Amino acid sequence: MLSPYLNMNRIFDFHPEDLLEKEKAIQKKIGGFSLLRLALFVAIGAFAVLFFSDAFYWIFPAGLAVWSFIWAIQQHNFLKDQVRVYHSLSKIQQERVLRERRNLKSLDSGSEFLDKDHPFSNDLDLFGEHSLFQLVNHTHSNSARNLLASRLKSQLDVKNGFRLHGAVSELALKEDLLRSFEAIGKAFFNEKEQKIDWSDWMNQSVRMKPYLLVLGWVGLLGGLTTGTLAYLGLFPSQFLGIWILLGLPFLGMVFKELKEAGDRIPSQTVLKTYKHWLFLLEAEKFDNSILRDHQDKLMLPEGPSTSKLLEELDRLSLWIQNRMNLLYIPLNLFFWTDLLIYYRWAKWKNNWGKEIASLPDELAYWELLISLAIFEREEAQLGSWEVSDKMEFEAKGIFHPLLEPKTAVANDFSVDQSGKLILLTGANMSGKTTFMRTLGINLVLVNLGLSPFAKFLRLGVFKLYTSMRNSDNLGQSISSFYAELSRIKGMIDRLENGERLFFLLDEILKGTNTEDRIAGSEALIRQLAMREFLGIISTHDIELSRLESKIPYLRNFSFHSQIHENTIDFDYLIKPGPCPSFNAHKLMELMGIRFEEKS
């Protein structure tokens, strides 16, 4: 069970049951505290008037009213935060349903990460509408979002993915942690309020000025003394203005530094998110070495916990970032409070700034891990996978993660060096391209440290390369055929440089005439003889299937269709051998094209 953490000495409720009823109850409490705050504010004003107009002892009920007012504000803010947590829990539930149904249109598409020149990301639906990014992404900060995109696009390192899989699997078992972590991010993190240059600035020491501490106490005690004497009529009231003027040069000495601190310290919503995330992570116990190592990076070797440090920073930032508040300005002018705030801030930054400089980056990595673990838990794929030293790929019951698991058709498939090149033929719409993308996107999943959408997967150590979506570029005067040739050239260059590739080429050389396409395809197939690879080439040119008897490393596989009078049926199952029949003629008829009988 997740250890609870506190906010204003209160515990957030992260249980997702009966959210509407619980929110209604809290809204009533919020209304009560709003009325209490108003009543206490009026009482403070009344006591202040009585203090100045009647007697000194009214300061005591005024002080009690101020304390009660602050307490009421804290309770009111906590209840509002709890409502935000309930809203985030509700949003999490809604998004889970959308992902289960593969209705991803409203989710962040990550379309800015699309890259036509990338070895595989543009062909495998990693980004954009109805993409893997939408299915996996549960991050909140831009840093974590960019990190996830980078990991999705990273070239295969399946041994590292296998190590990471242990960490993701352990995290996926911690349901309370995952739900609480995501709810906090949705409730409080606001990227627009995130400040920049945290790490570099936190690593810079602040020049300590011990005399400012002395001047700060002089200002505080002098302000109290001057105000008290003036109140008792023992001091001319004109000296109050002189006292304020006396403090202006000293306040000017720290104005620039405090303004910079206010600009650089993250907003209170961001600090609140970091603080609560740290409470959660500090309370957990992990067995996996990757999780323990990254948990240790959040901890300090000596001193208070990192969450306590952020709590202190949060209190300091409340003063620093509200220094231009109309209520604070007269207080500062009279008691020189900026001097004490600056000294406390400088001491805190010099003691702990370097220790927590990397905190946003570390928490971004935890966002990534949590995001992957939520995906792992929600999808609950129980298949196993292993890394082989051989150049091979074997899958049992593999299917595409962007299809609804209830309706997706699973396939068994294997390829090794004895038949390292697969020629894939099949009827239109029979599933050739989807199958190739199924293999590629599952390789991306295991590279992330996630379970494949398969009963079992064994794969060797190789890199992934695809050529599927090759489009023209009018701005660069590039035709789709030339774009495909450029992709193929990129693959050949990599192979000739000694890279071990698993490549997927869809509808090879489709931009040219049949004769040239067949000749070019055969030439490429023969050219690859001495290279170390696994590959699939899909084509409609059934003539190429005859090469199986001439080229020892080529194997034929296909997808079939059943043609009826008014329909075409597909089973989407891969089969050995070339496709026995095609359906383009029938599809055109069904779309309204009428063929005249030849005389």
UniProtKB/TrEMBL annotation:
State the UniProt keywords alphabetically.
ATP-binding, DNA-binding, Membrane, Nucleotide-binding, Transmembrane, Transmembrane helix
Q: Where are the transmembrane segments?
A: 30-49, 55-73, 211-232, 238-255, 325-345, 439-461
Under the heading InterPro entries, the entry gives:
DNA_mismatch_repair_MutS_C, MutS, P-loop_NTPase
Presence of the UniProt keyword DNA-binding in the record: yes
Organism superkingdom: Bacteria
Tell me the SUPFAM superfamilies matching this sequence.
Answer: P-loop containing nucleoside triphosphate hydrolases (SSF52540)
The record's annotation in Pfam families points to: MutS_V
The residues covered by the DNA mismatch repair proteins mutS family domain are 419-599
Q: Does the keyword Phosphoprotein apply?
A: no
* PANTHER family in alphabetical order: DNA MISMATCH REPAIR PROTEIN, DNA MISMATCH REPAIR PROTEIN MUTS FAMILY MEMBER
Q: What is this protein called?
A: DNA mismatch repair protein
Please spell out the taxonomic lineage of the organism that makes this protein: Bacteria, Pseudomonadati, Bacteroidota, Cytophagia, Cytophagales
